[in-house]
Target: Cupin domain-containing protein
Amino acid sequence: MRWTRLRRRQYRPPDRHMPNQPSPGAQPMAFEVYDFREVNKNVLTTPEIRARLYHMEPGQVDRLHSHDLGHEIFLILEGKAEFMIAGHTEVLEAGQLCVALADEIHQVRNLLPDRRTVMFLSVTPHIQPTHTGRDPDGSVHPPQFRSNSFYDDEDDTGPIADLLDAFVHGAEALADEARQAAAAHAQQAESWRKAQAADDKDATVAARNAMWKAVHSLHARLFKLDLTWNRLAPRADE
Model:
């Protein structure tokens, strides 16, 4: 399968009231198809996840680092690489996968002297600063905020003052959403207890579903705030 060169669909944080579906009568946009033999870049960059096809050059060694919030998954597609994660070393070949948990120091080395190693990797979540440099003794480097274009995404060029206002307003909206969710959870938790005591499965499920609605809304609001933060944070040194 070859890489289909299409304009990347625009990311929009989840919204229960505005689902990511084409409007009635609209032609749906084709989804992207990537060939790992050709593509060497981030194919998706959102606060929820960053996904990348990564080509390591012969003998290449990545720097020691960790991720403050994100777990990183590595899947070898071609070649052979040595992974050091939290002090333990393993060699992985095509078809094998490993995971570096949040805050675990890790490093990757391409063991092939004359060929590249290709892997799929994902970091979840992707919140700036996404990488924390580390020394062999575990010492932490100062946080490094990179431009969004470094992750193959568009840089924000709007006024910083507008981004600051949007971030503050987003934080206030998240706080309001959290208060509403807490009230909904308290009410539905009581309904759940009563339904469980009465062995009323339908009422128990209804309470659970109502709690999920509040959880969904809260996370959707948080993702919107994260998106604004990722646009704002790299611009502090302008």
